[in-house]
Specification:
Helices cover about 70% and strands about 0% of the residues. It has helices at about 15, 20-30, 35-50, 50-70, 75-100, 100-115, 115-120, 130-145, 150-160, 165-175, 180-190, 195-210, 215-220, 220-225, 230-240, 245-250, 280-290, 295-310, 310-320, 325-340, 345-355, 355-365, 370, 380-385, 390-395. InterPro entries: DUF6880. Pfam families: DUF6880.
Length: about 400
């Protein structure tokens, strides 16, 4: 009886080693004959073994071919294209960057330059192509951090060419874009970069990452500053910097009627009366009152907003600022108010999500006619109450 081999037939790197380099090479050549992406990957690996110059040249040839192509890419071929792009990106970041970070940055910028052309010819209803470039953004800015000013110029020029795309990639990069790197980008950009709306948005994002509040503020137009949400953003940043008076001025800028805060009729005409404010503006106003020392006024406003919206987050914020034991009494008052609120669904949402199931069940029992109305959440509420409060659950089930 033949002795059993110790070589496993399970596919793994350890088992394939036993085939030997010549046999594996033959198998790869055979597989590559019908797989263009594998063939390109093998060439990249061979070029990487030769050196950084050879690898950069091999990558550059493929990027040039993709940039020159005009053929439409169907949804069937989209996945293969994205795989191809990702393989080349990883070779830039993981192999080329080790030997020549400056050259790697220049090549990676060329990789990102492909995006506008690809968008025009790739059928991408699912947004997979855009997601691939956004996922690559941290690599770009991490690599930029390690390069000198000469190589950095390529990236700065790319930002100026495609400000709208790079605004999105800056946002996607998150913490990978360090403040110092963002500052260098700002310093390399020409003054003309802020002439267009897309350019201003780009520099504003960079200023945000560079923690340059004054530059960020200078790029907000008066029209934008009149938007309640933008006014709230401005105020929060100023409060964070201890600039309380300026924060108040920022919030007050949204109180004057403007196209971005007016209430409109169905016919497209502005309504008379107070400007339309937002929850973000109201929350920033509360923060401002706290910063100015008007803590009771801030608490009164929190409670007023809770009574209006039955907002759990506002209520938690209100309770967190009360002394011990006072918060228990205030919570009972809040639940009692919710029980009588005309918006049954809002009251139930507050009580179920808090969670305050006993109070929610009591609300159902006291207002069964409203509770039986069909709502998207009724089934979920009923299932959560069925064990302890079966009668309320039955009513919700209708």
């Amino acid at each position: 009886m033949a002795r059993q081999s110790r070589i496993s037939t399970r596919l793994s790197a350890a088992s394939l080693v036993h085939l030997g380099a010549p046999r594996l090479a033959d198998l790869l050549i055979e597989a590559g004959a019908g797989n263009a992406n594998l063939k390109r990957r093998l060439r990249l690996e061979l070029a990487a073994e030769v050196g950084a110059d050879a690898l950069a040249l091999e990558i550059d040839k493929r990027l040039s071919a993709l940039a020159a192509a005009r053929t439409r890419v169907s949804w069937r071929k989209r996945g293969e294209l994205i795989d191809d792009l990702n393989v080349h990106r990883l070779m830039i970041v993981e192999r080329l960057a080790r030997e020549a970070p400056g050259e790697a940055l220049a090549v990676l910028v060329r990789w990102f330059d492909l995006y506008p052309g690809l968008v025009a010819r790739v059928k991408d209803t699912k947004g997979e192509l855009a997601a691939a470039f956004e996922a690559a953004a941290p690599d770009l800015f991490t690599l930029a951090e390690a390069t000198n000013d000469g190589s950095f110029r390529d990236l700065a020029d790319a930002l100026a060419r495609h400000p709208q795309d790079y605004s999105r990639w800056i946002a996607a990069a998150g913490e990978a874009l360090a403040p110092d790197t963002a500052r260098r980008m700002i310093d390399h950009l020409e003054v003309s970069a802020t002439k267009s709306p897309a350019g201003r948005n780009l520099v504003r994002r960079l200023a945000d990452r560079a923690q340059d509040l004054d530059l960020w503020l200078s790029l907000v137009t008066p029209e934008q500053a009149a938007s309640p949400d933008i006014a709230a953003d401005i105020a929060r940043r100023l409060l964070g910097a201890g600039r309380t008076a300026e924060a108040r001025a920022a919030l007050e800028a949204a109180l004057s009627p403007s196209p971005l805060n007016r209430r409109w009729t169905l016919g497209g005409k502005p309504k008379d009366g107070a400007p339309r404010l937002t929850t973000a503006w109201e929350a920033a106003s509360i923060d401002l009152l706290d910063a100015e020392g008007s803590r009771q006024e801030a608490q009164d406003l929190r409670w007023s907003l809770f009574e209006r919206d039955l907002s759990a987050s506002v209520l938690r914020d209100f309770l967190s600022r009360l002394p011990d034991f006072d918060d228990v009494e205030a919570l009972d008052r809040a639940f009692a108010y919710a029980a009588k609120h005309p918006d049954f669904e809002a009251a139930m949402r507050l009580l179920m999500d808090w969670p305050a199931h006993r109070e929610a069940a009591a609300l159902v029992l006291s207002r069964p006619r409203e509770a039986r109305q069909t709502r998207a959440m009724s089934g979920d509420w009923a299932s959560r109450l069925v064990q302890r409060f079966p009668e309320a659950s039955e009513i919700l089930s209708g």
